[in-house]
Amino acid sequence: MVVYTSAKCGHCGASWANLSPNAQLTSFDTIGPPIIRCMYCSKDNVTEWKLPRDLNPIQKLIHINAKQVLGIILSFGFMGIGYGAFSEIYDPKTDNIILTLIFSLPFVFVGIKGLWNNLNQKSDLKYLEDKFDKNGGFIWSYEVYS
Known about the structure:
single chain; 5 strands; 14% strand
């Protein structure tokens, strides 16, 4: 799945856009860089996002832990649907393995991809904080939108 995100610099009006196959890096909700520096005019744009370390315990519970647990449950659900489709469609007597795989593998793939993304969410958030600190308190627009 590819997610298209866009924003504009509040100073020079330059458009930033991103087509990302990894939705978790670009669809932030309340978590993200609080300051984005424009790659064109080098001016800072203040956002309403917060770094994970700046969230209070309840916000961390809701925006990080609960979403991660829900994502893991949904991922296992998709894998279960894929397995159920495989076991329901496949009949060794008729040997319809290709048809079975066409219907079941997409669910399994989506489940595995979702599980991988949810298990790596902490490292993605840590990368965001590290990049913010390394740059001196901002994220370049090309690091978020490329």
